[in-house]
Amino acid sequence: MYQKTTRHISVHVEPRYLEHQSNPDDGKYVWSYTITLRNLGQETIKLLTRHWIITDGLGRMQEVRGDGVVGEQPVLPPGTAFQYTSGCPLATPSGVMQGSYGMITDQDEPFDVAIPAFSLDSPHDKHSVN
Predict the structure, then answer these.
(1) Termini Cα distance of the chain
(2) CA 77 → CA 40, 45, 80, distances in Å?
(3) Distance between CA 104 and CA 17 in Å, rounded?
(4) What are the pLDDT tens digits along the chain (130 aa)?
(5) CATH number, residue 71
(6) Domain assignment present for 127
């Protein structure tokens, strides 16, 4: 659904609203997002860090930084992929996430890979396209 390629690393994102974990009456809206990283290049890379910028429907921004993703720092040789699913709660029925991954090559060259901005839309948002 959302995709961006940086330095031969493709990032594909599929967000999904989780109705069963959300409680709009209490201002709790929850999404999962599945990310697939594909190494389309010729060198082995390792994901070291993540940096997220999460903006809710009122424009409030939160930054999240950490090591790896879902407790892992995956290594992607050329032609391979890594997929994981995580989640994001918000106090509004919509929002946007974007960010970057800190990577390193097998030659110890660090670089960042952009995570495309993607919408978090729920059926409770009057502006939602769902």
Answers:
(1) 14
(2) 9, 6, 6
(3) 32
(4) 799 999 999 999 999 999 999 999 999 999 999 999 999 999 999 999 999 999 999 999 999 999 999 999 999 999 999 999 999 999 999 999 999 999 999 999 999 999 999 999 998 876 544 4
(5) 2.60.40.1470
(6) no
DSSP, collapsed to helix, strand or coil, labels residue 26 as: helix
Closest to 35 measured CA to CA, from 62, 54, 16:
16
| Contacts (Cβ under 8 Å, ≥6 apart) of 35 | 11, 12, 13, 14, 69, 83, 84, 85, 86, 115
Q: How far apart are CA 37 and CA 28, in angstroms?
A: 29
The count of domains in the chain is: 1
Q: What is the DSSP letter of 112?
A: E
Whether residue 125 is contained in a domain is answered as no
What range does the domain containing 92 cover? Answer: 2-115
Could you list the beta-strand ranges (E) of the chain: 2-6, 9-17, 29-39, 45-56, 61-67, 75-76, 81-90, 94-105, 110-121
Residue 80 belongs to some domain of the structure: yes
Residue 120: inside a domain = no
